[in-house]
Amino acid sequence: MTVRTRGRGVIALVACVLLALSACSGSGAGQAPVAGNGGAARPCAGASGEYTIGVSQANVAEPYGAQTNADIRRAAAEVGQFTLRFADAQQDNGTQAQQVERFLDEGVDLIVITPNEGTALTPVVKKAFDQGTPVLVLDRRVKGEDYTSFIGADNVEVGRQAGRFIARSLLPEGGSTAEIRGLAGSDLAKERSAGFAEGLADQDVRVVAAADGDWLRDKARQQANTLFAEHPEVEAVYAHNDAMAEGVHLAARDAGRGDVDVVGVGGLPTESGGLEAVRAGKLAATFAYPTGGAEAVATAQRILIGCQPAPKQQTLTAELVTRKNVRDVYTRRAG
């Protein structure tokens, strides 16, 4: 072997050793990258690290939003490495965007967000994602694919099942129904409404009125008061969440329309939740709709402690609850 050949061999050997050392330094606790983001992956400290999670809720005044945060707290309490910071947008897109920006300035390790309106919050979610901060989107989608993982139910299917239940179980001989939608700019409301229309397709049930209740009980009650005055033929109402469904129930009572059946979405196992409303006969049905809070914490563990990428989509199951199965569902969910 010539001197030149031996020299090339030594260089190649040194390069291989350096490459191997580099690979070793990039794996194991403290160094593994967090995969799945658009920007530069952050080093992962694994089980030895301490992590701060920023939780941005669209509106804690909504029972569902409050329950989501409660579920996140409960699950995170089992993870000693996690510290939570909560922010409430109070149904304001600009406020929520500013709160996420603040999380980024504070250097949180991961963000969980339930967007008030997906389109409006897409830019700040993308910014966080592109900077390498994992972002878990709950319940309400943003535009595009610039997030780490979406966790939520199929809301088109929820609406579809609501339409079928009204047509087949409540109005099997045909009739008139109405819809109280969520926030007008929310993709969640659009999906539940689109599914409702699909569920009523080819059925002898007409949607004679629809209004926006903004996810709020009192707003829905006001809208339903007008609805019942203008459309006394309405026999069943689909509301996009249980808070609005309760508002519709109260409006029906005010109008002396105890015969009106109301269907909601949420099914929280709380004293004022949808399951209790079904059990008490206030609602004909609701959907036991998971908050995704526990799943969000489990996904944060997978990313930050396990140093593993998360599934892009995590579809949760919403269960139709009527007076026939409410006790069983209540027991399972409350337990």
Secondary structure: elements and pairs:
Elements (H helix, E strand, L loop, with lengths): L2 H23 L6 E2 L9 E2 L6 E7 L5 H14 L5 E7 L4 H14 L3 E4 L4 H13 L4 E4 L10 E5 L1 H16 L4 E7 L5 H14 L4 E8 L4 H14 L3 E6 L2 H13 L6 E3 L10 H6 L5 E4 L4 H13 L7 E4 L2 E4 L3 H9 L1
Parallel strand pairs: 3-4, 3-5, 5-6, 6-7, 7-13, 8-9, 8-10, 10-11
Antiparallel strand pairs: 1-2, 12-14
Helix pairs in contact: 2-10, 3-4, 5-6, 7-8
Task: Characterise the protein shown here.
The protein is of the alpha/beta class and 335 residues long. The chain has two domains: 32-151 and 292-315, Response regulator (Rossmann fold); 155-290 and 322-334, Response regulator (Rossmann fold, 3-Layer(aba) Sandwich). It is built from eleven helices and 14 strands. It has helices spanning 3-25, 63-76, 93-106, 118-130, 155-170, 187-200, 217-230, 242-254, 274-279, 293-305, 326-334, and strands at residues 32-33, 43-44, 51-57, 82-88, 110-113, 135-138, 149-153, 175-181, 205-212, 234-239, 261-263, 285-288, 313-316, 319-322. The strands form four sheets. A six-stranded parallel β-sheet has the order 4-3-5-6-7-13, with helices on both faces. α6 links the parallel β8 and β9. The longest helix has 23 residues, at 3-25. The termini are far apart.
